[in-house]
Amino acid sequence: MSNVIESIEAAVAFIRSRYSITPAVGIVLGSGLGSFTGEMKTELEIPYSEIPHFPVSTVEGHSGKLIFGELGGKKVVAMAGRFHYYEGYSTTEVVFPIRVMKYLGIRTLLISNAAGGTNLSYKVGDLMIIRDHISMLTINPLLGKNEPALGTRFPDMSEPYSKVLIAKAKTIAADAGIEVREGVYSGVTGPTFETRAEYAMLRLLGGDAVGMSTVQEVIAAVHMGLPVFAISVITDIGIREEENTITHEEVLQAAKDAEPRLTHIFKTLVAQL
Ligand code: HPA
């Protein structure tokens, strides 16, 4: 994809031809978190396969469409299904929908994901507000020629996750009696889950959770000056008893169980924006 801006504009023109309302918020739904959209008053769904230049999602648990509608009294666009580097997409493809949502007019980006806990005090089912991240050799999506229309060559990354949004979300969670953690997300490529030694290393390096998404999306958002709020659902604990294994099925199940709490926080946060 050599001319990113032209591709973004073509996707946006197509979407606008189907749906003329400007969404205020973009939402990325992680593995097992797709039924969140049941909370939305859906106005239009567009399968990724219909949108010019959109990659198509393949991983189990991701349905692959943009959903437009209302949530918490605001117009939102939700991505049901995201693109992962491990699926074979280029980093430009991974972040393409984020750029398209920004060009559609969103002013805030909410992200969810499933992640493994590397903090020893975390339990399966915990929600972790992402305070910061560590890119563990994930490929930076801004590598290559900078596109000044999107943002500066050297974006500041001192506050990738909006402190204002984090504070609001913590209040929302406390008011609802929902326990939340706040921590650092280590972004890896996957698709393997980590070895025992790798989970231990990530903990030592300051990570509280580890996952295979989000970091590239956040970098693209920060590049464009888009405020981000992100939550991980802790779906497995990398460091636990000997002989444990981790399966995609248990990740999806844990995400499903946590979904009502995540939904409450997202919905209330959107209402307060
Ligand atoms: N590691 C990496 N990615 C993940 C994990 C994990 O343990 N759980 C869910 N996504």
Short description:
The protein has helices spanning 4-18, 91-104, 163-175, 196-204, 215-223, 248-272; strands at residues 25-29, 41-47, 65-71, 74-80, 108-117, 127-135, 180-187, 209-211, 228-237.
How would you characterize the overall build of this protein?
It is a single chain. The protein has helices at residues 4-18, 91-104, 163-175, 196-204, 215-223, 248-272; strands at residues 25-29, 41-47, 65-71, 74-80, 108-117, 127-135, 180-187, 209-211, 228-237. It is globular and about 55 Å long. With 273 residues, the chain is an alpha/beta fold. The protein has 6 helices and 9 strands; from the N terminus they run αββββαββαβαβαβα. Helix content is 31%, strand content 24%. The protein has a single domain, classed as Rossmann fold (3-Layer(aba) Sandwich). A 5-stranded mixed β-barrel has the order 5-8-7-6-9, surrounded by 4 helices. The structure holds hypoxanthine (HPA). Residues 114-116, 188, 190, 193-194, 210-212, 235-236, 238, 246, 251 line the site of hypoxanthine.
Number of helices: 6
The CATH class is Alpha Beta
Quaternary structure type: single chain
Shape: globular
Strand content bin: 15-25%
Low-confidence regions: none
- What is the N-to-C order of secondary-structure elements (H for helix, E for strand)? HEEEEHEEHEHEHEH
What's the total count of β strands? Answer: 9
The CATH topology is Rossmann fold
